[in-house]
Amino acid sequence: MNKRTWVVIASVCLLGAAACAVGSTLPTEEAGTDASTSSDGGPSGDATKSDGACTAPLIHCAGTEAGVCTDLKTSVDHCGTCGTACTVPDASALEAGSGNPDSGVPPTDAGPPLGPFWSVGSPGCDGGACAVSCPQAMSLCSDGICYDTQNYHDHCGTCGTGCQATEYCALGHCCGVGTEWCGSSCINVLSDTNNCGQCGHKCGTNLSCANGACTSQFTVDVFPGTGTLVDPGNNSYWSARYYTMTFASSQTIAGIAWKVNLGTTDYFYGEIWDPSNTTTSLAKGTSVYGSGTEQFYNSPINYTVTANKAYLVGVYMSNANVVFPRKDTPTYPFTVTDQLGNITISACWSSSTTNTDIFPTSTNYWAPYFKLTLQ
């Protein structure tokens, strides 16, 4: 069977030198050798000449089939010089994924980035030098790997810009866990009422943002503004701490948090008492064990207070010898403001056991640091 033969048509040269430089050919039905392209079927800088002669800048590289002409400026198998093949870099040391810790924020409407977050790209030859072609939206970094710099931890925003261990890469910016890049800065979307759960999501009137969701719950600090701060403080020596609180409006106490260094075998729980009845508490919260670090530990509780009525609000601990930040010799009363009005704190009390040994504020000046969750 006759094979197609590719023959250079001299008249093509009349169209311009560029046409001749790339070896333009037309087919005939005469017998001869096969015309061929690069082994991968794509552009490789190789062409075939039936007469074995190559037209500059194409050359014939030793070891290639007869009649195969190569452009050393574009061939991935013979780039710059014959026999110099272009390859992709070794990425065996890289793990799949973005290298980020868990962002600690709810996923956006679009969902989390799915990747891939890096690629070895495709080999190429550009002007006689090996190069790597990256997928769209990826950047070629100095290690020869293509990275998604919008989401990759160690190349965030630009190649070589790595985030800290407690940060993740968000839209090309390093943000701390629990925050999200919202146009100009990293915002705590777990608590920001204007960016609750995700950037731009605003909570309605009288709602707060808790754990990335709009809620009627909010927190308020209860700690004297006056007095001498002692932190971490000394051992308590007393098993319970209470403030006398009067609320300007009726609201529900949903949690009592205490800042304390609580051991792993120690626990406390929130309590609410009627100052005129120290026999039985009005409410008792969930027991909370410590982790051996100083932090706010929250005891969930559920009690609705009446407006303008005094309550003893505080904690009872299993071990009196715990360390907690305190204010010495504060001034009473002091006032804190929540979303539903003022809370007046008129005294601080301690007891060695629940309700049996409550002392007036004049004998106890170690004021604890509480956070109340209200709604």
Write a structural description.
Helices cover 1% and strands 34% of the residues. Strands 18, 20, 21, 22, 24, 26 and 27 form a seven-stranded antiparallel sheet that branches. It is an all-beta fold and 375 residues long. The longest helix has 5 residues, at 17-21. Among the domains are: 1-83, no CATH class; 219-374, Jelly Rolls (Sandwich), CATH 2.60.120.
**Termini Cα gap:** 90 Å
Structural class comes to: mainly beta
Average pLDDT, to the nearest integer? 80
- Quick one: overall form? elongated
Residue share in helices? under 10%
Q: Count up the helices.
A: 1
Oligomeric state of the chains present here: single chain
Q: Enumerate the spans where pLDDT stays under 50 for 5 or more consecutive residues.
A: 1-43, 353-363
Q: What is the CATH topology of the domain at 219-374?
A: Jelly Rolls
Q: How can the largest sheet be summarized?
A: 7 strands, antiparallel
Using the CA coordinates, give the radius of gyration: 37 Å
Order of helices and strands: EHEEEEEEEEEEEEEEEEEEEEEEEEEEE
Content of β-strand? 25-35%
CATH class of the domain at 219-374: Mainly Beta
Total number of beta strands: 28
* CATH architecture descriptor text of the domain at 219-374: Sandwich
Write the topology of this structure.
Blueprint: E1 5-7, H1 17-21, E2 26-28, E3 46-48, E4 68-70, E5 118-119, E6 122-126, E7 129-133, E8 139-140, E9 146-147, E10 167-170, E11 173-176, E12 180-181, E13 186-187, E14 208-210, E15 213-215, E16 218-222, E17 228-230, E18 240-247, E19 251-261, E20 267-273, E21 283-284, E22 288-289, E23 294-305, E24 310-317, E25 326-328, E26 334-338, E27 341-351, E28 370-374
Antiparallel strand pairs: 1-2, 3-4, 5-9, 6-7, 8-9, 10-11, 12-13, 14-15, 16-28, 17-25, 18-24, 18-27, 19-23, 19-28, 20-21, 20-22, 20-24, 26-27
